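Project standup — Tuesday

K.O.: blocked on the structure for the chain from last sprint. Re-posting the sequence here as requested.
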Amino acid sequence: MIANNGHRLAFHVTPGSTPTIVLDAGGGEDSSYWDALVPQLSQATGSQIITYDRAGLGASEEVKGPWDPQAAAFDLQAGLRELGVTRNVVLAGHSQAGEVAHYFVLANPGVVSGAVLIDANVPQFFTDTQIQRLVTLTAPQIEELKKAPSTKANRQLIATADNFGPTHQAFHKVSWPDSVPVIYVVSDKTPFDGSPQDAQAWRDAAAAFTKAGPDRTLVIAKGSSHDVPQDKPALVLEKIEQMTATVK
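H.V.: unblocked you, prediction finished:
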């Protein structure tokens, strides 16, 4: 348990060599999301592997207020520094963790040597038009969550909806640094399988992100839902292993 800014966060470490692989789960998910992949990654790479619970998830304490990806990146920074991990990191993030990854690499130059973003949120997707569509699309789901029994996961999903517009308008202006190579794995079905327009916008954003800088590779997880690490674990393992090999 690592303290930062008045709350404590749970970090889990599998011993190994450098580079260190840091796995960050998507919205509403905690470190247990990676339980099946961690031993496989450890065996395949020999790397130290770190998973953690973002604030309000798993064993980590909650933080009041709307979702703040910059604060989440600060939490990750505090945890890694406490663990002595200050360079040669391969950062792998799924879905909402793409926002954390962007703010983390920008605030910590030289720490991340390579990244694997797995159907992750990227700035190119969050245009004003798309933000408004998402607010409208998710409003019924958020209302149902507010009526449902209160759980940590539900509260965090509700927090993501709070202040969604300004948070993602700011994220839209963020740029991934050219110095950090990245493999972007986009799902075949995207998070918007039932909405062709939004699904196409997601695919277009993935393509735009990978074209926006050097050392960026786009990989399509054919047949996969948004839940790529669960649907296509061998592909995720392969791409993290590939990135780890290039930064050793």
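K.O.: great, moving the ticket to review. The mean pLDDT is 95. The domain at 2-125+174-247 is CATH 3.40.50.1820 (Rossmann fold).
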